[in-house]
Amino acid sequence: MADYDLVVRNGTVTTASDVFGADIGVIDGRIATIGAKLGSGRREINAEGRIVTPGGVDSHCHIEQRSSMGVMTADDFFTATRSAACGGTTTVIPFAAQYRGMSLRQVVKDYHACAESKAAIDYAFHLIISDPSEQVTGQELPALIKDGYTSFKIYTTYDALKLDDRQILEVLSVARSERALVMVHAENHDVISWLTDKMLAAGHASPRFHAMAHAPIAEREATSRAISLAELVDVPILIVHVSAREAMEQIRQAKARGLKVYGETCPQYLFLTANDLDRPGFEGAKFMCSPPPRDKANQDVIWQGLATGVFDVFSSDHAGYRYDDPEGKMKHGRNAPFKKVANGVPGLEVRTALLFSEGVGKGRIDLPQFVALTSTNAAKLYGLHPRKGTIAVGSDADLAIWDPEKEVTIQQSMIHDAMDYTPYEGKSIKGWPVMTLVRGEVVAEGGEFVGAAGRGRFLKCNISPATAPLGRRTIPFDPATGVAEPGRHGDHAH
Ligand code: URP
Ligand code: ZN
Ligand code: ZN
Questions:
Q1: Which atom of ligand 1 is found nearest the CA of 60?
Q2: Which pTM value belongs to this model?
Q3: Strand 428-438 vs strand 56-61: parallel, antiparallel, or unpaired?
Q4: Best substitution site from 58, 290, 345 to test ligand 1's pocket, by max atoms within 8 Å of Cβ?
Q5: I need a surface site. Which of 118, 343, 436, 447 has the fewest CB within 10 A?
């Protein structure tokens, strides 16, 4: 009789801290032993010459979600998770998105109904909060956090989603008392809409003006404001999809001041530029996302942020809208003004391989940093670690097995999502996840999906240690309890 259900033999095992040669023995979908010369497995995988990493955790992706302008993403939970699996990702954390007037509890039920029978890999949910009514902040949110939805995204822009500063403070305050993590889409709405109106009035409606309207200063201002509001409440926050030097500097400075401000960036800010939005005709729409890709100098800055720890998470922000499709980018026609084009780019499948090739392969980051950025840190921040995001005894056997020498030219025809384009078409990279396992089962192999819809399980997120407040009060008054410290009037209580 075999000792293990599965043994992955002779691989170079890589975690966020170590790189070492070992066998991995799996029993009942979990890692049972890591060691040399393990006993036999019912199934054996020879990983000689391969790098074995924890499966990717893509903690920012939009799946079966209607955009703020009412356009449905191309991918459902099956096509999205199939695509993620083929790119070495084993857990996704998409959003259950509340629009105004909706009950959060009902929103969560609706997203579960979409995911349950379709997801091929494991999944959790963040909540998007656009309507922080008393019912939501006082009852629904605390109850949902206890049920395993321990993170939520808020927006400072988009008419249908944006919160004002007072509402942001209220949400941050709930996060502080319940120990949830707030993700912030930080762009100044009035700057963007004012610039947009001026551009459209002057007849500048093509996709390239999207990048100009979403100015780096708008991103910087909202990032700085979000950090200030979180500092006032003394609650950790995570700034998502950072595109440019200006916003990144705010995060770097906040970290240097000891604040628990986490940062996320995405492939589009390393591999695309605003010039892509200026392609002939309407093609620039393929590259429109918010914040938009910037320029080469900003790409270099974002790489530095990844290498030096300003960014904790590298996610896809996969928000796929097909190009040549009346339900996608062309919903309002082939020449729609940029304001009416759905925002978002796909990236679930190529996220990790792009970073592996251009980051590890080109010496910008090392292998443990790669694992931390694509898997471990997200699992930690969102309360899934150590079940997810690492290779350790007791963890789920979620693994990506990499051929570091495999050369791939990215083409939409090899990608397993429901899109009709990839923004990375024609890009040549080196290194590819040739096999992906979820809880010890092979779900992708040799560029083919071999898993099944419905095999993915819902993951309840725990309270993450990353959400612990610092205990630094900036005024001698606690808004959560109403308690004021006697005899103190200053604004520097620490
Ligand atoms: O352009 C983007 N990023 N679309 C998806 C929605 C969001 O803001 O994350
Ligand atoms: Zn966003
Ligand atoms: Zn997003």
A1: 9
A2: 0.97
A3: unpaired
A4: 290
A5: 447
How would you class 280 by CB atoms within 10 Å of its CB: exposed for 0-12, middle for 13-18, buried for 19 or more? Answer: exposed
Collapsed DSSP state (helix, strand, coil) of residue 370: helix
Residue 330 tokens, joined: 């062309």
State whether the beta carbon of 387 lies less than 6 angstroms from ligand 1.
Answer: no
Regions of the chain short of the pLDDT cut 70: 488-494
Q: Which ligand is nearest to the CA of 60?
A: 3
Does the C-beta of 317 come closer than 6 Å to ligand 1? yes
Q: What is the pLDDT of residues 467-490, one digit of tens each?
A: 999 999 899 998 888 999 887 655
CA 39 from chain center: how many Å? 38
How far apart are alpha carbons 265 and 246 in whole angstroms? 13
Closest CA to 55 of 98, 85, 13: 85
pLDDT score of 489:
59
Q: What 3-state DSSP class applies to 403? A: strand
Using a 6 Å cutoff on CB, does residue 473 contact ligand 1? no
Torsion of CA 222, 225, 227, 232, to 10 degrees: -160
Provide the CA 255 distance to its chain's centre, in angstroms: 20
Q: What is the DSSP letter of 462?
A: P
Closest ligand to Cα 65: 1
